[in-house]
Amino acid sequence: xxxxxxxxxxxxxxxxxxxxxxxxxxxxxxxxxxxxxxxxxxxxxxxxxxxxxxxxxxxxxxxxxxxxxxxxxxxxxxxxxxxxxxxxxxxxxxxxxxxxxxxxxxxxxxxxxxxxxxxxxxxxxxxxxxxxxxxxxxxxxxxxxxxxxxxxxxxxxxxxxxxxxxxxxxxxxxxxxxxxxxxxxxxxxxxxxxxxxxxxxxxxxxxxxxxxxxxxxxxxxxxxxxxxxxxxxxxxxxxxxxxxxxxxxxxxxxxxxxxxxxxxxxxxxxxxxxxxxxxxxxxxxxxxxxxxxxxxxxxxxxxxxxxxxxxxxxxxxxxxxxx
Length: 323
Hints:
Helices cover 37% and strands 16% of the residues. The protein is built from 13 helices and 10 strands. An 8-stranded mixed beta sheet has the order 3-2-1-4-5-6-10-7, sandwiched between helices. 55% of the residues are buried.
């Protein structure tokens, strides 16, 4: 029996690969794709998500959600992904027949979780939709089997500021709600979109050699992002943080070193806005006098933090799903 997934995405170029992986995996049944403003504005994200489903020839419903963060001004990542989120190929990746569902993404999340036992939620963008769903229906927490979050950076550098990764930085208030909710979160941080996790020029050639429309799409829609990643890091290759997170969601054994810790999100500081503060040394009990940690400690659930992943295993999964 395929495992039920719900994917919440901001539909940029690395999201495209992650969604494609889930839609093509024989052991995954994607019940819904919900879209949030992030890499691209909401309307563009919905269009992209419809294209992903159309490319994979599935009728997975797509729902539009929040078009801005809870309290912040919306800031896209189009400089990296392109104005269309998929590398600025014009009409090449426009859906031809699909249409988004009428239901709001927040309600779709609530309904899907309530009606689908042991659903796995995978978040690939800012956490606005999920935070709004939790506010409206806190009962869904106990109905989710796993919540794999591509976001944050555990005790390391970010990609939008030195302290923060984009998905969390974009809407830190939403991220704080989600991380404090008690959901069974598994955090796959931005650190796994660098180094050995990046598709190297040799890996790109291997994907091209597969010769399928899925393989060509994976490379083509990420070409602009490849240039952006080189500007950002000096490293040549295609960085796919959402693809890595989806690989962990599909195959938990890809995570070779994990542990549970208290986590909170910085919302007050301009310097460290959106920082995922991970209590790696488990010293939170010693800082109970700090108001922020009092709130965190009210909920005994501790997110599972990924510290090490099997890069070869994630890449092999990708190659297999692109055939």
